[in-house]
């Protein structure tokens, strides 16, 4: 049943009129990467139980593949291919560390530097960029993350 | 206030502190600019005068003179005096690397504050003026080589050596990008201060990433097949046909109504609870 849904999704993409806004382009690419990957995961259930990590892996991979014009996507792909264990995104521990360090350092520039390094950790590949590049990459990373959440929400809603 | 420094018919000095146009600016000037200069040097400037000066100047061949005229609408002879010192060296509002001296700074301050009024005409002339400026600087053999044409306004009292200029340009680029980010992130417009804005950005990215994680968890539950997930009803073919279109419509509708994500975890919580009830 689900396979049929996914096949239909794939088929009907081409019939729709082509629109050129970049967010739509990204969303199309994203769904066209993710949905077949999920389908494949679904079919290959027998060798190993589907764990959360694999799906997350596919999700991240789809994100990286749909946004290849940006620098961070290359870094993300590298991370994904190097380790099968995708990077955990929540960093509550580092949050605590940040607050502590922020309280200690009274220097304003120091605080800003702290936050910038925090940002670097969040962005894939942020460690290797200088500040200017990182700021522009962060802009489009945020946009792609937003689109990704919307796409994921829709996929989840449509299959429940 | 001061008597008008120039009168209509000619530019013969009305008082010793004013100068003829030819002394100030050796390059040829056409009538449009001359009238523009007349308007601009009037002792009671108004924005209208500045803009007419700018408009007249826009038609002028020598765009460099417009910097003079529009920039100094209503300035006194002292300003003209300082310009006369640097007569062959054109004040280039836009090009950052041309001016070195303190008088250059002063001029830039004057021109800078005035040019904010007549801003529209300034920038396009910046290119040619910097071209003329670089030519003029060679005459005066300033040690400062012209940089790339970034629009940097030096303020009074700030150093004009190469390093601080480059740093200032870099800082301005960074703050440009910060303001661009502020536009992207909801609720960031009202926040002032780099540190707080960065805080917001960090929180936003973290919440987005957490959302993605939740959703992929949910997706994993859903994707593991109809046996373990919540009971997926039989989809009538009508729905199947509209499903992809709906998917896209949902996506774009949600994109339009981008509300804060605070409520999201509860929603997910409810759904996941529902699904777990069925599996156990």
UniProtKB/TrEMBL annotation, chain A:
Keywords: Nucleus, Transcription, Transcription regulation. The keyword 4Fe-4S does not apply. It is found in: Nucleus. InterPro entries: bHLH_AtIBH1-like (IPR044549), IBH1-like (IPR044660), IBH1_N (IPR059002). GO terms for cellular component: nucleus. The keyword Transcription regulation applies. GO terms for biological process: regulation of DNA-templated transcription. It comes from the Eukaryota. Residues 24-83 form the IBH1-like N-terminal domain. Its main location: nucleus. PANTHER family: BHLH DOMAIN-CONTAINING PROTEIN, TRANSCRIPTION FACTOR IBH1-LIKE 1. This is IBH1-like N-terminal domain-containing protein. It comes from Brassica cretica.
Automatic annotation (TrEMBL), chain B:
Gene3D superfamilies: Helix-loop-helix DNA-binding domain. Residues 7-21, 88-98 have a biased composition (Polar residues). Keywords: DNA-binding, Nucleus, Transcription, Transcription regulation. Residues 1-22, 59-150 are annotated as: Disordered. Residues 158-208 form the BHLH domain. It is found in: Nucleus. InterPro entries: bHLH_dom, bHLH_ZIP_TF, HLH_DNA-bd_sf. GO terms for cellular component: nucleus. SUPFAM superfamilies: HLH, helix-loop-helix DNA-binding domain. Pfam families: HLH. Residues 137-150 have a biased composition (Basic and acidic residues). It comes from the Eukaryota. One of its GO terms (molecular function) is DNA-binding transcription factor activity. This is BHLH domain-containing protein. PANTHER family: STEROL REGULATORY ELEMENT-BINDING PROTEIN, TRANSCRIPTION FACTOR BHLH79.
């Amino acid at each position: 049943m689900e396979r049929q849904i996914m096949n239909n999704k794939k088929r009907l993409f081409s019939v729709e009129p082509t629109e050129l806004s970049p967010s739509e382009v990204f969303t199309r690419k994203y769904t066209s990467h993710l949905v077949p990957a999920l389908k494949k995961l679904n079919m290959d259930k027998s060798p190993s139980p589907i764990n959360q990590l694999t799906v997350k892996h596919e999700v991240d991979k789809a994100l990286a593949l749909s946004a290849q014009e940006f620098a961070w996507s290359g870094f993300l792909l590298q991370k994904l291919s190097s380790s099968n264990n995708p990077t955990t995104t929540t960093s509550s521990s580092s949050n605590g560390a940040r607050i502590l360090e922020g309280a200690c350092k009274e220097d304003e520039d120091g605080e800003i530097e702290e936050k910038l390094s925090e940002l670097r950790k969040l962005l894939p590949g942020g460690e290797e960029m200088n500040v200017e590049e990182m700021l522009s990459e962060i802009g489009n990373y945020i946009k792609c993350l937003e689109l990704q959440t919307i796409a994921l929400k829709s996929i989840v809603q449509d299959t429940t | 206030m001061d008597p008008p420094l120039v009168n209509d018919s000619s530019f013969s000095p009305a008082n010793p502190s004013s100068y003829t146009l030819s002394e100030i600016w050796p390059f040829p000037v056409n009538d449009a600019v001359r009238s523009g200069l007349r308007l601009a040097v009037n002792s009671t400037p108004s924005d209208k005068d500045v803009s007419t000066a700018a408009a007249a100047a826009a038609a002028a061949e020598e765009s460099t003179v417009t910097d003079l005229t529009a920039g100094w609408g209503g300035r006194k002879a002292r300003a003209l005096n300082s310009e006369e010192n640097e007569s062959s060296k054109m004040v280039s509002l836009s090009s950052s690397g041309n001016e070195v001296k303190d008088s250059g700074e002063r001029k830039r301050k004057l021109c800078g504050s005035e040019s904010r009024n007549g801003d529209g005409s300034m920038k396009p002339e910046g290119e040619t003026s910097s071209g003329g400026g670089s030519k003029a600087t060679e005459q005066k053999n300033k040690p400062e080589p012209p940089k790339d044409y970034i629009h940097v306004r030096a303020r009074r009292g700030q150093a004009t050596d190469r390093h601080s200029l480059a740093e200032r340009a870099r800082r301005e680029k960074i703050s440009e990008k910060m303001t661009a980010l502020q536009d992207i992130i909801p609720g960031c417009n009202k926040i002032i201060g780099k540190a707080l804005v960065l805080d917001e950005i960090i929180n936003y990215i973290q919440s987005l990433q957490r959302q993605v994680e939740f959703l992929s968890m949910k997706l994993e539950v859903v994707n593991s097949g109809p046996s373990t997930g919540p009971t997926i009803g039989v989809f009538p073919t009508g729905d199947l046909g509209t499903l992809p279109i709906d998917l896209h419509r949902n996506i774009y509708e949600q994109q339009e109504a981008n509300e804060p994500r605070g409520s999201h975890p509860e929603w997910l919580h409810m759904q996941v609870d529902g699904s777990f009830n069925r599996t156990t």
